[in-house]
Design a protein that fits this description.
Blueprint lengths: L6 E5 L4 H12 L3 E6 L2 H7 L8 E5 L5 H12 L6 E4 L14 H29 L2 E6 L12 H21 L4 E8 L14 H8 L10 H10 L10 E4 L18
Parallel strand pairs: 1-2, 1-4, 2-3, 4-5, 5-6, 6-7
Helix pairs in contact: 1-7, 3-4, 4-5
């Protein structure tokens, strides 16, 4: 029960990793503030969570006023102990076909929203003299994928902000890190191309998809006292999918 009675804020809580994170923190006694754009989806995703320790707050993270309201709700009654910036958009769009509106929406949700939440909630954490922030990033921050270049750029910038906020908030006892999950079907609200999930899994050095619980355990370690001297870091939990290499570069025995 590492997080007993700690307030934990999770964005994108209706997604596959948001649900996993919420359940894992709840199992260790946390009080949850969960947010996603659609209240119906958020309600359905939280159905199995303890009602007395779960607060739902629907918010469009592309809307500045909605972010302000979310910050106020999260800080009400005392600064959160943990913020997990998990929400993100990953549309499958070829680089030369990305529209201005699609680009703006992706950067608003993937980058500006975490930035503003780290400001608003980070200030409250700093005033309380404690706190942990984890930004959910991606191997796309360093591996270019033709159908997700703006997404990768947003995650690259998010990792930059992670280091910047670690420097800014560290003197006040607030740690800021990033974590990269493996690809999981259902983690993006788009239709996956046929065979995409299988291809991603088989290209990872571990040759399998991430298993339920593996990413939440990595995030919870970063937020726990066991990682009390870890800040400004990126923890990869993607089976090695972030490693740039040429085809055929593996030295593993064949056949």
């Amino acid at each position: 029960m590492r997080f007993r009675d700690q307030k934990v804020v999770i964005t994108g809580a209706a997604g596959v990793y948001g649900r996993e994170l919420a359940a894992a923190f709840a199992a260790e006694g946390a009080r949850l503030v969960l947010t996603d754009r659609d209240l119906a989806s958020l309600t359905a995703a939280s159905a199995a969570l303890p009602v007395e320790r779960t607060n739902l707050h629907a918010a469009n993270l592309a809307d500045d006023a909605a972010i302000d309201r979310l910050v106020a709700a999260a800080n009400q009654g005392g600064a959160p102990h943990v913020l997990v910036n998990n929400a993100g958009l990953y549309p499958f769009i070829p680089l030369m076909e990305v529209s201005a509106a699609e680009y703006d929406l992706m950067l608003d949700v993937n980058l500006k929203a975490p930035f503003r939440l780290m400001q608003g909630i980070g200030r409250a954490m700093a005033a309380a003299g404690r706190g942990s922030i984890v930004n959910v990033s991606s191997a796309a921050a360093e591996v270019i994928r033709g159908n997700g270049v703006p997404y990768g750029a947003s995650k690259c910038a998010l990792e930059f902000f992670t280091r910047a906020f670690a420097l800014e908030l560290g003197p006040f006892g607030v740690r800021v890190n990033a974590a990269r999950p493996g690809f999981a079907e259902g983690s993006a609200q788009v239709t996956m191309p046929a065979g995409y999930a299988q291809a991603i899994s088989t290209r990872a050095p571990l040759r399998r998809a991430i298993r339920p619980g593996e990413f939440s355990r990595a995030v919870m370690w970063l937020c726990s006292d066991d990682a009390g001297y870890v800040t400004g870091s990126v923890l990869d939990s993607g089976g090695g999918g972030h490693i740039n290499r040429r085809e055929g570069a593996s030295t593993a025995a064949r056949g």
